[in-house]
Design a protein that fits this description.
325 residues; 47% helix; binds flavin mononucleotide; globular; 11% strand; 11 helices; five-stranded parallel beta sheet
Length: 325
Amino acid sequence: MVNSTREVRMVKKVLAVHFSQTGQAAALLENIVRPLREQADVALTCVRLEVTPPFPFPWPFWRFLDTFPETVHLDPPPLASLPLAGDENFDLIILAYPVWFLSPPPPLTAFLRHPLARAVLRGRAVVTATACRNMWVMAQQTVKQLLLETGARHLDHVALVDRGHALATFITTPRWVLTGRKDAFWGLPAAGVAEEDLRDAGRFGVALLQGLRRNDEKRDTPLLTGLGACKVDTALVASETIGIRSFRIWGRALRALGPPGAPARRALLVFYMLFLLAVIVTVVPLSMLLRRALTPLMGARLERTRQSYEAPSGSGVERLGHDHG
Ligand SMILES: Cc1cc2nc3c(=O)[nH]c(=O)nc-3n(C[C@H](O)[C@H](O)[C@H](O)COP(=O)(O)O)c2cc1C
């Protein structure tokens, strides 16, 4: 293929896959792939994931809660369709997703476990991207593990979060997913990742295009370092670790009582809700106080935790404002 500078370049095949309910993960992916679109040396294939039956939006309250056991136990409904043959040889695969209950959303789990997707992912360079409230670390650990099981080569992760304070988003995010309303109210900010942050994700696409043109995706090194790809808030990691453990334990008990919607599950869900509320108003403030007191003693350990969860792309910003080359 000959491009405008008359250089001869190989056409790079890129697969962009996403699941999104309200469009945030979709917008993130669209902004990442925009620089790759309409390039003579890039062939882009886009796949939107959906399961059958589809999840509702906005969410009825009990349906929302009753979805966590299967989500955290990686037991998704089947994909509605998957327009892949399994023998495509993509140079780069980009996966964009929202976080659900500190886990990958079921449609992404279904994709990562689908035989065709596994065949397509094996040995391929993969970039993951998430747009969520603020807790993406445990979900991404799970996604990394699922990718490892497919034999994919995970090169980078981008994480965009709601800029609102954790206490504000604790109200604005549930309001959004349960009512569909994300506007600012009562002095609280609008819910979701800021439009500007989604738009700025174009920088990752520019860097991916440059990397592909240099065949960098063939090496096992990240392409998006220095671009502020993901920043771990160590203050939230402890809550995430406890949260996912609690979801898994209670999720197992709930699943033992029947499938989603079973009346016995509803009774235990009510109990778990009350338990969670009690934990949130007692244990969480106590653990925050304790953490504040211990932070000076744990500096080096927290730094190691941050770096390991931010791997491979990291939170460095040294390439921002440059041409991303
Ligand atoms: C069922 C459900 C569970 C969620 N759980 C989390 C979570 O654990 N952590 C988080 O940061 N955001 C969570 N969110 C917010 C989503 O990550 C995301 O911001 C929101 O669903 C919008 O994404 P979309 O526009 O791509 O659908 C959750 C949303 C839903 C619907």
